[in-house]
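so my prof wants the structure for this chain in the tokens format not the other one, which i didnt know existed until like an hour ago. anyway here's the sequence
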Amino acid sequence: MNKYVVKGIVAFTTVVGLLVVWLFFENSNSYIKPEEALLAIEEDLILIPAYKIDDESLLFFIKDHEHLGASYIHKGLLGWKAGHLAWSPLDRNVGDNQLNGYQGYGDNLIYGLMTNGDEQIVTMNNDVAYMLNLEMLPAQIVDEYQLNGLYLWYIKSDRVMDEGEIKLVNKYSNEVIDLILK
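here's what i got, hopefully its the right format
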């Protein structure tokens, strides 16, 4: 046999072998639903879904009763795969009419907790936060984790959010109630 044919067969077999190994590992780390991908990394999380659009999903979570975090999950060739998880201490002592700080995930997501989400909005540099009423979670979770009356707000932007004013604003009067400099 010609030595070029043998080299071609060896190269083809190597490429096919590597492809099979890659597909095996890709498949073992991919899941049908974004929630499954996140729970495969850390199974004792309380998940708070924010959105699932096209090939991206954002999930917030409560870890160990005392941490609030976030993770992006992306849809790959064979299913959903979780990105890294980031969390900070969960402070449930959120006062009315005040921002209770914020947390960040990467350069384009900030989030925090607040009360009065029906009457107030959070803004940063003219971006308005999305609100998630935590009472949407099962009643047992709301009671056990002391989430009554709390809203999770988040702002996701296409641009880097490295500085600006995070404002708590009355929805009806546009009065700025509280302000945090980032």
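also thought this was worth mentioning. DSSP finds three helices and 13 strands in the chain.
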